[in-house]
Amino acid sequence: METEEQARTRFQSELEFIQCLANPNYLNFLAQRGFLRERPFINYLKYLLYWKEPEYAKFLKYPHCLHMLELLQYEHFRKELVNAQCAKFIDEQQLLHWQHYSRKRTRLQQALAEQQQQAQQPPHGNATAK
Amino acid sequence: MASAAEKSTKERLLAVVEDLEVLSRELIEMLALSRSQKLLQTGEDVQVLQLLVQRDREFQELMEVAQQQGTVHQEMQLLEKEVEKRDSDIQQLQKQLKEAEHILATAVYQAKEKLKSIDKARKGSISSEEIIKYAHRISASNAVCAPLNWVPGDPRRPYPTDLEMRSGMLGHMANMPTNGVNGHLPGDALAAGRLPDVLTPHYPWQSSDVSVGMLPPHHGNDFGLEPPGHNKENEDDVEAMSTDSSSSSSDSD
Protein backbone atom coordinates (compact mmCIF):
# COMPACT_ATOMS: atom_id res chain seq x y z
CA MET A 1 0.00 0.00 0.00
CA GLU A 2 1.36 3.37 -0.88
CA THR A 3 0.76 6.55 1.01
CA GLU A 4 -1.02 9.48 -0.54
CA GLU A 5 2.29 11.29 -0.73
CA GLN A 6 3.83 8.43 -2.65
CA ALA A 7 0.83 8.26 -4.92
CA ARG A 8 1.08 11.96 -5.68
CA THR A 9 4.75 11.60 -6.45
CA ARG A 10 3.98 8.70 -8.72
CA PHE A 11 1.35 10.82 -10.43
CA GLN A 12 3.80 13.58 -11.08
CA SER A 13 6.53 11.27 -12.31
CA GLU A 14 4.17 9.47 -14.64
CA LEU A 15 2.87 12.81 -15.90
CA GLU A 16 6.43 13.89 -16.70
CA PHE A 17 7.37 10.60 -18.23
CA ILE A 18 4.43 10.29 -20.54
CA GLN A 19 5.01 13.78 -21.88
CA CYS A 20 8.64 12.92 -22.53
CA LEU A 21 7.31 10.35 -24.98
CA ALA A 22 6.34 13.23 -27.26
CA ASN A 23 10.03 13.75 -27.93
CA PRO A 24 11.05 11.46 -30.81
CA ASN A 25 14.70 11.81 -29.90
CA TYR A 26 13.93 10.47 -26.47
CA LEU A 27 12.04 7.58 -28.03
CA ASN A 28 15.05 6.83 -30.18
CA PHE A 29 17.21 6.93 -27.05
CA LEU A 30 14.93 4.44 -25.31
CA ALA A 31 14.84 2.16 -28.34
CA GLN A 32 18.59 2.09 -28.76
CA ARG A 33 19.10 1.12 -25.16
CA GLY A 34 16.70 -1.78 -25.56
CA PHE A 35 14.00 -0.53 -23.22
CA LEU A 36 11.34 -0.93 -25.86
CA ARG A 37 12.08 -4.63 -26.04
CA GLU A 38 11.61 -5.36 -22.37
CA ARG A 39 8.29 -6.92 -21.46
CA PRO A 40 7.84 -4.96 -18.19
CA PHE A 41 8.37 -1.72 -20.07
CA ILE A 42 5.87 -2.69 -22.73
CA ASN A 43 3.37 -3.52 -20.02
CA TYR A 44 4.09 -0.15 -18.42
CA LEU A 45 3.35 1.59 -21.72
CA LYS A 46 0.03 -0.20 -21.86
CA TYR A 47 -0.69 0.83 -18.30
CA LEU A 48 0.04 4.47 -19.20
CA LEU A 49 -2.91 4.48 -21.59
CA TYR A 50 -5.00 5.72 -18.68
CA TRP A 51 -3.81 9.21 -19.54
CA LYS A 52 -6.21 9.13 -22.49
CA GLU A 53 -9.15 9.48 -20.11
CA PRO A 54 -10.39 13.09 -19.97
CA GLU A 55 -9.94 13.43 -16.24
CA TYR A 56 -6.23 12.67 -16.65
CA ALA A 57 -5.67 14.08 -20.10
CA LYS A 58 -6.50 17.57 -18.97
CA PHE A 59 -3.16 17.73 -17.19
CA LEU A 60 -1.13 17.09 -20.31
CA LYS A 61 0.57 20.11 -21.75
CA TYR A 62 2.04 18.28 -24.73
CA PRO A 63 -0.81 16.21 -26.20
CA HIS A 64 1.43 14.80 -28.94
CA CYS A 65 2.58 12.31 -26.33
CA LEU A 66 -0.76 10.53 -26.42
CA HIS A 67 -0.44 9.81 -30.10
CA MET A 68 3.10 8.56 -29.57
CA LEU A 69 1.88 6.38 -26.73
CA GLU A 70 -0.76 4.82 -28.96
CA LEU A 71 1.83 4.12 -31.64
CA LEU A 72 4.17 2.65 -29.07
CA GLN A 73 1.62 -0.08 -28.38
CA TYR A 74 2.56 -1.61 -31.73
CA GLU A 75 5.65 -3.79 -31.89
CA HIS A 76 6.44 -2.67 -35.42
CA PHE A 77 6.71 0.94 -34.31
CA ARG A 78 8.89 0.06 -31.34
CA LYS A 79 11.23 -1.89 -33.60
CA GLU A 80 11.51 0.92 -36.15
CA LEU A 81 12.41 3.50 -33.51
CA VAL A 82 15.87 2.00 -33.19
CA ASN A 83 16.82 3.75 -36.42
CA ALA A 84 17.93 7.32 -36.06
CA GLN A 85 16.49 8.10 -39.49
CA CYS A 86 13.09 7.02 -38.28
CA ALA A 87 13.28 9.31 -35.29
CA LYS A 88 14.45 12.15 -37.51
CA PHE A 89 11.56 11.58 -39.88
CA ILE A 90 9.09 11.64 -37.03
CA ASP A 91 10.66 14.79 -35.67
CA GLU A 92 10.42 16.57 -39.03
CA GLN A 93 6.83 15.54 -39.59
CA GLN A 94 5.95 16.55 -36.06
CA LEU A 95 7.43 20.00 -36.56
CA LEU A 96 5.66 20.43 -39.88
CA HIS A 97 2.37 19.44 -38.30
CA TRP A 98 3.09 21.82 -35.43
CA GLN A 99 3.54 24.65 -37.89
CA HIS A 100 0.48 23.68 -39.86
CA TYR A 101 -1.99 25.86 -38.03
CA SER A 102 0.16 28.96 -37.99
CA ARG A 103 0.86 28.51 -41.71
CA LYS A 104 -2.83 28.08 -42.38
CA ARG A 105 -3.57 31.17 -40.37
CA THR A 106 -1.00 33.28 -42.21
CA ARG A 107 -2.36 32.02 -45.49
CA LEU A 108 -5.88 32.98 -44.49
CA GLN A 109 -4.69 36.37 -43.39
CA GLN A 110 -2.92 36.86 -46.70
CA ALA A 111 -6.01 35.83 -48.62
CA LEU A 112 -8.12 38.20 -46.55
CA ALA A 113 -5.67 41.03 -47.12
CA GLU A 114 -5.73 40.37 -50.87
CA GLN A 115 -9.52 40.35 -50.86
CA GLN A 116 -9.66 43.65 -49.04
CA GLN A 117 -7.19 45.12 -51.48
CA GLN A 118 -9.27 44.06 -54.42
CA ALA A 119 -12.44 45.34 -52.79
CA GLN A 120 -10.85 48.73 -52.28
CA GLN A 121 -9.59 49.19 -55.82
CA PRO A 122 -12.83 49.51 -57.86
CA PRO A 123 -14.43 52.18 -55.59
CA HIS A 124 -11.42 54.34 -56.32
CA GLY A 125 -12.84 54.84 -59.73
CA ASN A 126 -11.10 54.48 -63.01
CA ALA A 127 -7.68 54.19 -61.52
CA THR A 128 -5.31 52.29 -63.72
CA ALA A 129 -5.35 48.68 -62.75
CA LYS A 130 -2.09 47.32 -61.37
CA MET B 1 -62.26 -44.37 -52.25
CA ALA B 2 -63.55 -46.73 -54.98
CA SER B 3 -61.95 -50.15 -54.84
CA ALA B 4 -60.30 -51.57 -57.91
CA ALA B 5 -63.19 -53.95 -58.46
CA GLU B 6 -65.82 -51.17 -58.57
CA LYS B 7 -66.41 -49.80 -62.02
CA SER B 8 -66.93 -46.11 -62.61
CA THR B 9 -70.37 -44.86 -63.47
CA LYS B 10 -69.28 -44.15 -66.99
CA GLU B 11 -68.20 -47.74 -67.53
CA ARG B 12 -71.37 -49.09 -66.10
CA LEU B 13 -73.47 -46.82 -68.24
CA LEU B 14 -71.59 -47.87 -71.33
CA ALA B 15 -71.97 -51.53 -70.42
CA VAL B 16 -75.72 -51.12 -69.98
CA VAL B 17 -76.00 -49.28 -73.25
CA GLU B 18 -74.15 -52.08 -74.98
CA ASP B 19 -76.45 -54.64 -73.40
CA LEU B 20 -79.45 -52.67 -74.56
CA GLU B 21 -78.00 -52.53 -77.99
CA VAL B 22 -77.44 -56.28 -78.08
CA LEU B 23 -80.84 -57.11 -76.68
CA SER B 24 -82.70 -54.77 -78.99
CA ARG B 25 -80.78 -56.17 -81.96
CA GLU B 26 -81.74 -59.73 -80.90
CA LEU B 27 -85.33 -58.75 -80.45
CA ILE B 28 -85.47 -57.14 -83.86
CA GLU B 29 -83.79 -60.17 -85.42
CA MET B 30 -86.31 -62.42 -83.66
CA LEU B 31 -89.19 -60.30 -84.88
CA ALA B 32 -87.79 -60.30 -88.36
CA LEU B 33 -87.29 -64.06 -88.26
CA SER B 34 -90.72 -64.74 -86.79
CA ARG B 35 -92.34 -62.60 -89.51
CA SER B 36 -90.61 -64.52 -92.24
CA GLN B 37 -90.92 -67.89 -90.61
CA LYS B 38 -94.25 -67.49 -88.83
CA LEU B 39 -92.91 -69.58 -85.95
CA LEU B 40 -93.27 -68.66 -82.28
CA GLN B 41 -90.18 -69.09 -80.15
CA THR B 42 -90.97 -70.50 -76.79
CA GLY B 43 -90.98 -67.56 -74.47
CA GLU B 44 -87.62 -66.35 -75.79
CA ASP B 45 -89.04 -63.13 -77.04
CA VAL B 46 -90.64 -62.57 -73.67
CA GLN B 47 -87.31 -63.22 -72.01
CA VAL B 48 -85.59 -60.86 -74.29
CA LEU B 49 -88.26 -58.25 -73.69
CA GLN B 50 -87.94 -58.68 -69.95
CA LEU B 51 -84.17 -58.38 -70.15
CA LEU B 52 -84.64 -55.31 -72.27
CA VAL B 53 -86.97 -53.71 -69.76
CA GLN B 54 -84.59 -54.59 -66.96
CA ARG B 55 -81.64 -53.08 -68.76
CA ASP B 56 -83.65 -49.98 -69.49
CA ARG B 57 -84.50 -49.63 -65.81
CA GLU B 58 -80.81 -50.01 -64.92
CA PHE B 59 -80.01 -47.44 -67.50
CA GLN B 60 -82.46 -44.95 -65.98
CA GLU B 61 -81.04 -45.55 -62.50
CA LEU B 62 -77.54 -45.10 -63.69
CA MET B 63 -78.50 -41.86 -65.41
CA GLU B 64 -79.89 -40.52 -62.16
CA VAL B 65 -76.74 -41.52 -60.34
CA ALA B 66 -74.73 -39.80 -63.01
CA GLN B 67 -76.79 -36.63 -62.65
CA GLN B 68 -76.29 -36.59 -58.90
CA GLN B 69 -72.61 -37.10 -59.36
CA GLY B 70 -72.62 -34.21 -61.75
CA THR B 71 -74.14 -31.82 -59.18
CA VAL B 72 -71.74 -33.01 -56.55
CA HIS B 73 -68.87 -32.44 -58.94
CA GLN B 74 -70.05 -28.91 -59.63
CA GLU B 75 -70.23 -28.15 -55.94
CA MET B 76 -66.76 -29.51 -55.53
CA GLN B 77 -65.49 -27.18 -58.20
CA LEU B 78 -67.15 -24.20 -56.57
CA LEU B 79 -65.60 -25.11 -53.26
CA GLU B 80 -62.22 -25.55 -54.86
CA LYS B 81 -62.46 -22.07 -56.28
CA GLU B 82 -63.34 -20.73 -52.85
CA VAL B 83 -60.36 -22.55 -51.40
CA GLU B 84 -58.08 -21.05 -54.00
CA LYS B 85 -59.37 -17.60 -53.26
CA ARG B 86 -58.80 -18.05 -49.55
CA ASP B 87 -55.34 -19.40 -50.22
CA SER B 88 -54.34 -16.36 -52.22
CA ASP B 89 -55.79 -14.12 -49.50
CA ILE B 90 -53.68 -15.88 -46.91
CA GLN B 91 -50.58 -15.54 -49.05
CA GLN B 92 -51.24 -11.85 -49.51
CA LEU B 93 -51.58 -11.39 -45.77
CA GLN B 94 -48.42 -13.38 -45.26
CA LYS B 95 -46.51 -11.10 -47.60
CA GLN B 96 -47.81 -8.00 -45.87
CA LEU B 97 -46.96 -9.45 -42.49
CA LYS B 98 -43.44 -10.21 -43.62
CA GLU B 99 -43.05 -6.67 -44.94
CA ALA B 100 -44.36 -5.17 -41.73
CA GLU B 101 -42.04 -7.35 -39.69
CA HIS B 102 -39.10 -6.28 -41.80
CA ILE B 103 -39.93 -2.60 -41.45
CA LEU B 104 -40.38 -2.93 -37.71
CA ALA B 105 -37.13 -4.82 -37.35
CA THR B 106 -35.27 -2.07 -39.20
CA ALA B 107 -36.95 0.60 -37.13
CA VAL B 108 -36.11 -1.17 -33.89
CA TYR B 109 -32.53 -1.69 -34.98
CA GLN B 110 -32.10 1.97 -35.90
CA ALA B 111 -33.67 3.06 -32.66
CA LYS B 112 -31.25 0.83 -30.75
CA GLU B 113 -28.31 2.32 -32.66
CA LYS B 114 -29.55 5.80 -31.81
CA LEU B 115 -29.81 4.90 -28.17
CA LYS B 116 -26.32 3.50 -28.24
CA SER B 117 -24.91 6.65 -29.75
CA ILE B 118 -26.85 8.78 -27.24
CA ASP B 119 -25.33 6.76 -24.43
CA LYS B 120 -21.91 7.08 -25.93
CA ALA B 121 -22.27 10.82 -26.34
CA ARG B 122 -23.52 11.20 -22.80
CA LYS B 123 -20.59 9.22 -21.44
CA GLY B 124 -18.06 11.37 -23.21
CA SER B 125 -19.69 14.66 -22.36
CA ILE B 126 -17.39 17.31 -20.97
CA SER B 127 -18.33 20.81 -20.04
CA SER B 128 -17.52 23.24 -22.81
CA GLU B 129 -15.80 25.51 -20.32
CA GLU B 130 -13.28 22.84 -19.44
CA ILE B 131 -12.58 22.15 -23.07
CA ILE B 132 -12.03 25.80 -23.78
CA LYS B 133 -9.79 26.11 -20.75
CA TYR B 134 -7.72 23.16 -21.88
CA ALA B 135 -7.58 24.36 -25.46
CA HIS B 136 -6.33 27.70 -24.25
CA ARG B 137 -3.74 26.02 -22.08
CA ILE B 138 -2.21 23.95 -24.81
CA SER B 139 -2.36 26.68 -27.44
CA ALA B 140 -1.03 29.54 -25.34
CA SER B 141 2.07 27.57 -24.44
CA ASN B 142 2.66 26.79 -28.12
CA ALA B 143 2.48 23.09 -27.40
CA VAL B 144 0.21 22.24 -30.34
CA CYS B 145 0.63 25.27 -32.56
CA ALA B 146 3.94 26.78 -33.48
CA PRO B 147 4.54 30.40 -32.47
CA LEU B 148 3.91 32.70 -35.38
CA ASN B 149 7.49 33.92 -35.45
CA TRP B 150 9.06 30.48 -35.35
CA VAL B 151 12.02 29.92 -37.66
CA PRO B 152 14.32 26.91 -37.97
CA GLY B 153 16.85 27.42 -35.24
CA ASP B 154 14.27 28.35 -32.65
CA PRO B 155 14.75 25.95 -29.74
CA ARG B 156 11.05 25.71 -28.95
CA ARG B 157 9.42 22.37 -29.71
CA PRO B 158 6.06 20.64 -29.43
CA TYR B 159 7.59 18.27 -26.92
CA PRO B 160 9.64 18.73 -23.76
CA THR B 161 13.25 19.44 -24.65
CA ASP B 162 16.30 17.92 -22.97
CA LEU B 163 16.63 20.88 -20.69
CA GLU B 164 13.06 20.70 -19.57
CA MET B 165 13.29 16.97 -19.03
CA ARG B 166 16.44 17.17 -16.95
CA SER B 167 15.11 19.89 -14.74
CA GLY B 168 12.00 17.95 -13.92
CA MET B 169 11.30 15.64 -11.04
CA LEU B 170 12.35 12.59 -13.02
CA GLY B 171 15.55 14.26 -14.12
CA HIS B 172 16.55 14.85 -10.54
CA MET B 173 15.48 11.41 -9.36
CA ALA B 174 17.98 9.69 -11.61
CA ASN B 175 21.44 9.94 -10.17
CA MET B 176 23.17 8.53 -13.21
CA PRO B 177 25.32 10.91 -15.24
CA THR B 178 23.66 12.22 -18.32
CA ASN B 179 24.73 10.40 -21.43
CA GLY B 180 23.49 10.67 -24.94
CA VAL B 181 20.90 13.15 -25.95
CA ASN B 182 18.58 12.70 -23.04
CA GLY B 183 19.39 12.45 -19.44
CA HIS B 184 17.28 10.13 -17.43
CA LEU B 185 16.31 6.54 -17.53
CA PRO B 186 12.79 5.65 -16.60
CA GLY B 187 13.79 2.31 -15.19
CA ASP B 188 15.67 4.06 -12.44
CA ALA B 189 12.77 6.19 -11.44
CA LEU B 190 10.52 3.18 -11.12
CA ALA B 191 12.97 0.89 -9.48
CA ALA B 192 14.12 3.48 -7.03
CA GLY B 193 10.70 4.27 -5.68
CA ARG B 194 12.27 6.69 -3.32
CA LEU B 195 11.04 10.16 -2.75
CA PRO B 196 12.84 12.85 -4.67
CA ASP B 197 14.31 15.99 -3.20
CA VAL B 198 11.71 18.62 -2.81
CA LEU B 199 12.19 20.76 -5.86
CA THR B 200 10.14 23.54 -7.24
CA PRO B 201 9.24 22.52 -10.73
CA HIS B 202 10.28 25.09 -13.23
CA TYR B 203 7.91 24.20 -15.98
CA PRO B 204 4.15 23.94 -15.82
CA TRP B 205 4.14 20.66 -17.70
CA GLN B 206 5.68 18.89 -14.77
CA SER B 207 3.26 19.76 -12.09
CA SER B 208 -0.37 20.27 -12.36
CA ASP B 209 -2.28 23.04 -10.68
CA VAL B 210 -4.81 20.60 -9.42
CA SER B 211 -2.63 17.62 -8.68
CA VAL B 212 -3.94 17.65 -5.15
CA GLY B 213 -6.52 14.93 -4.97
CA MET B 214 -5.57 13.53 -8.37
CA LEU B 215 -4.00 10.15 -8.09
CA PRO B 216 -2.86 7.72 -10.77
CA PRO B 217 -4.66 4.43 -11.07
CA HIS B 218 -3.35 1.81 -8.72
CA HIS B 219 -1.16 -0.87 -10.16
CA GLY B 220 0.50 -3.93 -8.65
CA ASN B 221 3.95 -2.37 -9.19
CA ASP B 222 4.99 -5.40 -11.12
CA PHE B 223 4.93 -4.84 -14.83
CA GLY B 224 6.81 -8.05 -15.44
CA LEU B 225 3.55 -9.92 -15.36
CA GLU B 226 1.50 -10.15 -18.49
CA PRO B 227 -1.46 -7.83 -18.23
CA PRO B 228 -4.87 -9.10 -19.27
CA GLY B 229 -6.07 -8.18 -22.70
CA HIS B 230 -4.72 -8.43 -26.16
CA ASN B 231 -1.50 -7.06 -27.51
CA LYS B 232 -1.61 -4.79 -30.49
CA GLU B 233 0.54 -6.97 -32.64
CA ASN B 234 -1.73 -6.51 -35.61
CA GLU B 235 0.63 -5.36 -38.29
CA ASP B 236 -2.14 -4.42 -40.66
CA ASP B 237 -3.17 -1.44 -38.58
CA VAL B 238 0.23 0.16 -38.52
CA GLU B 239 1.44 2.22 -41.41
CA ALA B 240 4.79 0.78 -42.21
CA MET B 241 7.42 3.41 -41.67
CA SER B 242 10.15 2.36 -43.97
CA THR B 243 13.56 3.39 -42.85
CA ASP B 244 14.64 4.28 -46.32
CA SER B 245 11.88 6.75 -46.94
CA SER B 246 13.28 9.88 -48.44
CA SER B 247 13.19 12.77 -46.09
CA SER B 248 10.14 14.78 -46.86
CA SER B 249 10.95 17.76 -44.77
CA SER B 250 10.63 20.23 -47.59
CA ASP B 251 8.15 22.89 -46.72
CA SER B 252 5.05 22.60 -48.78
CA ASP B 253 4.63 26.33 -49.01
Automatic annotation (TrEMBL), chain A:
Q: Which UniProt keywords apply?
A: Activator, Nucleus, Transcription, Transcription regulation
Is Nucleus tagged as a keyword? yes
Q: What is its main location?
A: nucleus
Give any Pfam family that matches: Med31
Q: Name one GO biological process term.
A: regulation of DNA-templated transcription
GO MF entry, a single one:
transcription coregulator activity
GO CC annotations on file: mediator complex
* Location of the protein in the cell: Nucleus
| Family the entry assigns | Belongs to the Mediator complex subunit 31 family.
Say what the protein does.
Answer: Component of the Mediator complex, a coactivator involved in the regulated transcription of nearly all RNA polymerase II-dependent genes. Mediator functions as a bridge to convey information from gene-specific regulatory proteins to the basal RNA polymerase II transcription machinery. Mediator is recruited to promoters by direct interactions with regulatory proteins and serves as a scaffold for the assembly of a functional preinitiation complex with RNA polymerase II and the general transcription factors.
PANTHER family xrefs? MEDIATOR OF RNA POLYMERASE II TRANSCRIPTION SUBUNIT 31 (PTHR13186)
Q: How does it assemble?
A: Component of the Mediator complex.
Name the chain's protein. Mediator of RNA polymerase II transcription subunit 31
Automatic annotation (TrEMBL), chain B:
What PANTHER family does the annotation carry?
MEDIATOR OF RNA POLYMERASE II TRANSCRIPTION SUBUNIT 4
Q: Please give the Pfam families that the UniProt record associates with this protein.
A: Med4 (PF10018)
Species assigned in the record:
Pleuronectes platessa (European plaice)
Q: Provide the protein name.
A: Mediator of RNA polymerase II transcription subunit 4
Domain of life where this protein originates: Eukaryota
List localization entries: Nucleus
Q: Which family does it belong to?
A: Belongs to the Mediator complex subunit 4 family.
Q: Subunit structure, per the record?
A: Component of the Mediator complex.
Q: Where is the composition biased (Low complexity)?
A: 242-253
Q: What does this protein do?
A: Component of the Mediator complex, a coactivator involved in the regulated transcription of nearly all RNA polymerase II-dependent genes. Mediator functions as a bridge to convey information from gene-specific regulatory proteins to the basal RNA polymerase II transcription machinery. Mediator is recruited to promoters by direct interactions with regulatory proteins and serves as a scaffold for the assembly of a functional preinitiation complex with RNA polymerase II and the general transcription factors.
- Segments for region (Disordered): 210-253
